[in-house]
Amino acid sequence: MKETPILFGPNASLVGIVCEPIVTSDIAVLTFNAGVIPRLGPHRFNVKLSRALADEGVTSMRFDLSGLGDSRPASTQCDFLQQAVVDVRSAIDYLELHHGVRRFILIGNCSGAVHAYWTALADQRVAGILMFDGFWYRTRWSRLVRHWKRFRAGTWKSAATAIARRLVGSWSLIRHEGGSESANIFSSDESTANPPRAEYCHAIQTLVDRGVAIFLIFSGGVIDAYSYARQFRDGFADEPFVDKVRCNFLPEIDHTLLSLRSQNRLIDVIRNWILGIVESHGMPAIRTATDPAKVAPT
Q1: Which domain holds residue 180?
Q2: What is the CATH number of the domain that holds 93?
Q3: Whether the Cβ atoms of residue 17 and residue 93 lie closer than 8 Å to each other
């Protein structure tokens, strides 16, 4: 395994680390920032994942988006979401030019999942995306399951206290909003970066039709948004893509990957999925990192 720091992108403003095994496949994995966390990932998760993939013969690159970590701010007029897609595509360009890679898997955590989604729609070279705690869509069972799980985890006293608190809050809201019918003792903040459902369905179907492998993972840290294992399948039961998108609910894993157990569990899940993609694309690990036909990174 060899890890090489690089500068890439317009004016060499972006900073990344290429992690390359001695023998590698013609597919590479890209990881980047989760929120404002630098390229190493929550509790160095991206570093650990990269090295685990190198052991399996898969090249990866972890890097900072413009204005985050060690990368300089962008000089363009793009907004943050647009610039993130530009940056991820710059990383794809670099690996294609300097390492001969043709297909790419994007792994995004939280806001990184959003960037993976939009980049996959924009770039035909993306073969797979993994969205960890990304977009979510509730079903009629979501709140019921969530409240039932909270009830089971507490005591009768704590449940009574929570219900009383909700009732008091709802009564205050009704008094201030003139008895609005939207008040609900189980209401919660619906603000989210989710695309409209119809737009999301069209986008996922487009990616599936293109042969992009899609893996959605939801942790126990977002149980208010994704509360049970079949939520995705229940929510999109009538969509043609529903059986072609892999979705795992891993309640034992926390959103920030604080524990080593969570990290190791997620690494195992991701590694097995990626190796499945490599095999399905017929890309055996036959290209060596010392291949003279490759252009050395600058």
Answers
A1: 141-191
A2: 3.40.50.1820
A3: no
Domain count, the chain: 2
For 287: left if phi > 0, alpha if psi spans -120 to 50, otherwise beta; the answer is beta
Residue 246, Cβ neighbours under 10 Å: how many? 15
Q: Name the DSSP letter for residue 65.
A: P
pTM of the model: 0.81
Q: Are 217 and 130 in contact (CB under 8 A)?
A: yes
Query: Which tops the pLDDT comparison, 65 or 286?
Result: 65
CA–CA dist 257, 220 (Å, integer): 11
Distance, in Å, from the CA atom of 286 to the CA atom of 255, rounded to the nearest integer, reads 36
Cross-strand bridge partners of residue 288: 23
Looking at the fold, whether 178 and 213 belong to one and the same domain comes out as: no
pLDDT interval class at 282 (50, 70, 90) = low
Q: Is 44 helix (H, G, I), strand (E, B) or coil?
A: helix
